[in-house]
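S.,

Sequence below, as promised.
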Amino acid sequence: MELWLRILFGIAALGYLSAGVCAALTRERRGVALKIFALAGFFAHTCALAAIIIGYSRAPFSNPFELAESISWAIMALHIFASFALKMKIGEILVLFCNSALAGLPVLCPKFMQEISAGGASDFVGVLHALLAVASFAALAFSAALGGVYILSRRLIKNKSNSGFARENPPLAMSARLGRGALFFAAALMAASLLAGIFAASQTELPPRFALKFCAGSALFLMMLCLCFFSKKITELAAAKLCIALFIVSLLLLIPIEIGTRI
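The prediction came back faster than expected:
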């Protein structure tokens, strides 16, 4: 099982890396190859996570390594949706290279496989809590990406640049509207995740350190809620910047806590 996981994650990392290289090339040379490599990497990534679920009879959320791979998969799924359904090129180079590095972790880091082998069984409510949290984080990342698209497109339009970036993405008003929608969706998912976590905690006794995770998730939810409330009362540019800032804060807040609770 470990060998197959390494192979699948290795294929995913190579696919994302190749797609990232294609994305960095000129438009005429990148189109078809980029889609093939990205979809091949995403398929291998999906198979790897499915192998963890089937092989170890639990969801891939039991340690920081698996959680990172699940979040990476969710962000890639949103990116593919945005590329194909919405015809948007949202930070594709950054997304592909970052996902390539994350997918390569199981190949390069022996501790990853040790953590997978040591993982315990998952209960339904615990899995639901983690799944909702991963989806919320991915939606928040999507909102931040849309904020980045809005800021860069606005600057290019203001400077009357001939860059094709603005033409490859939706109009400014649509980017702002989609960003707000992704933020509202992230907040709703985080609220559901917190409720599932409360229910799971009421059914069993959890170590005190998990209270810290709940406090961090609650703080992030409150920040999302405040930004959702004020997003229509401030300028679109300010809302885009705050979405990016909120995503960065979530990284600085949750990642150290998640790693700390596993040590």
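The radius of gyration is 19 Å.

Coffee later?
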